[in-house]
């Protein structure tokens, strides 16, 4: 079945693209959840035109997101937390902490875009990924020090 993607869906398709998927997948997952709509024989030309416009707008957006990704890759942010005698934190550094630190640097992201490789519970340097879109996930360095 041919469907037009209304939202980005990782490993399936990007918003604005027309893709071919299995009938059951489209009818039971993509369409009911609002990820895609069915493209009929009469609608094919309309959605192809719409897809071309979406590609152009995606290119403009991707250049802006690419510049933001480069800016994030070069970042080193510092956070000071209370620490036990053995170097462990009283509490882990959370997504909200990273969002606030990036906001001070002029980068506005939401909480769900912050991805930790593993929980940050010790003093030192840690890698934190920021999921900007399905293909761009720049990693920044988070330095945790004692308060």
Describe the structure.
With 147 residues, the chain is an alpha+beta fold. It has two domains: 2-67, Ribosomal protein L9, N-terminal domain (Ribosomal Protein L9, domain 1), CATH 3.40.5.10; 75-146, Ribosomal Protein L9, domain 2. It is built from three helices and nine strands. It has helices at 23-30, 44-73, 95-104, and strands spanning 2-5, 18-20, 36-38, 76-81, 88-93, 114-116, 120-122, 124-130, 139-146. The strands form three sheets. Strands 4-9-8-6 form a four-stranded mixed sheet, covered by helices on one side. A three-stranded antiparallel sheet has the order 2-1-3. The longest helix is centred in the middle third of the chain and has 30 residues, at 44-73. It is elongated, with a radius of gyration of 21 Å. The model has no long low-confidence stretch (mean pLDDT 88).
């Amino acid at each position: 079945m041919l469907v037009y993607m209304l939202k980005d869906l990782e490993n399936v398709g990007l918003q604005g693209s027309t893709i071919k998927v299995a009938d059951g997948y489209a009818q039971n997952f993509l369409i009911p959840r609002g990820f895609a709509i069915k493209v009929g024989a009469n609608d094919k030309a309309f959605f192809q035109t719409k897809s071309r416009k979406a590609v152009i707008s995606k290119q403009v957006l991707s250049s802006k997101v690419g510049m933001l990704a480069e800016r994030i890759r070069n970042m080193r942010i510092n956070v000071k937390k209370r620490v036990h005698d053995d170097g462990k934190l009283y509490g882990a550094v959370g997504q909200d902490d990273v969002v606030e630190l990036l906001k001070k640097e002029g980068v506005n992201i939401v909480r769900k875009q912050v991805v930790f490789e593993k929980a940050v519970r010790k003093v030192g340097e840690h890698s934190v990924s920021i999921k900007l879109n399905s293909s761009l996930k720049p990693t920044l360095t988070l330095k945790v020090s004692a308060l």
